[in-house]
């Protein structure tokens, strides 16, 4: 190193001058020295030179070598580095050492110091600065192009948004692989300019393809720069269809699973990016593995035809699931035609199952709700409602053959005093059989007899009662019996043998609820053609007792309440067993 070399020369001159000065003073000294036989050259000062400063690239092997003068000629060398390096110096009697330049992201200085000792205890040291420079591997630009469904690679319709993605560009020697690229720059090199006003310094480029009379190619270039200033470019060419070849985008909706006679929602979407291609026209079709129309039995006799699809030319419509004898997949296809005559289809598959024999009545509810109203119209925007599923809508669509009659999905048969079936037009009847559940129910009267509609009873049972039998004559009860409670009424009806049966009992909560017709908005919640005198719609609830004690209202572990159903509002609640409520007894069942 230049500066150290000058210092070394000055130090050597100073040593020579000193020796000369001592030789000229004090006579006889030189003779005495020469007589002693001592070699005055070995007494010269020990000096070391670590070598010149230098620059080396990362990964290269660099050799170190020191030069020494003076001393007794037998030296020990020790090399150190700051910052730390792995040095190779196997022989300390040799000035030769080496190291492999480490990987660096920027030019980095390392100070290499050599310390020398001789056998006489003399010591000296010197250093050299070695600069390690990075070897920059250029980045690799990469452009990812999205695929457009139905078109070849790198083909796109006119007037649609496209996003080119350069985020997969990489730099092999980046210190942080997650932040390898410091700059992105997009340019368009060919075709109708589509990037004016777009951000071109992001990892992605977003633009809208041009609307053209003829097909055209447009080319884009991405240049990426790494943190060390190296660059790379990539290009991609896209083909844009002409406006007359650009097809509408069509979606037939979602596949479904339904029972025969239920509603299939056909909610398609269609659009075009070409204004001249409008208006779009629509057509729904059904696969031919089932009949295109159905003939179903009419409640008034004979058969009526129902359309498989309500409005085949509407984008949003519905179909009635066809009658099948086994699980069948039915395809519904939406065909969209634009003003250029282009047609695009999309298909959904609907799994249709045989409607099972119901073991419980549906709710009777056929209305459908929007966000602010109830309506009888099909509501595709609010799918899966009660009014679109279940026995009631299946019956409305004519797919349920009843043993008797009844509103919505209910199926009742009138029984006479002997328990025999009566025609649906009979003026009098004593009991009603529910052909869905198999339960037989008593019918209330308006004759002041045992079953009169105005009688009210407290809840009482000395069997299953939750720890408290109840009240034999509760508040405000009234009846033709000595004790107006549910157990007394049950015993009396069995003694009478209503309809020839002697196993009448209080209904469970579940059983009593099967009679509720929740679709009747302006009358009591039951089919009054079969169950007259149930009650009157008004401000007061029309409570009917169930046989089920309630866990609410427990006093000293005894249930003070029992469950009842309100045939006015359709709700259930627990009442104190002393309360007065109506009773409808039941028997049999599946």
UniProtKB/TrEMBL annotation:
Keyword Signal listed: yes
Keyword list, A-Z: Signal
Region (Disordered): 28-53
Transmembrane helix keyword on record: no
InterPro entries: Ig-like_fold, KIAA0319-like, Lcl_C
GO cellular component terms, semicolon-separated: cytoplasmic vesicle; membrane
Pfam families the record matches: K319L-like_PKD, Lcl_C
Domain of life: Bacteria
Residues annotated as signal peptide: 1-17
Gene3D superfamilies: Immunoglobulins (2.60.40.10)
Domain (Lcl C-terminal) ranges: 431-587
Protein name: Lcl C-terminal domain-containing protein
Originating species: Alteromonas australica
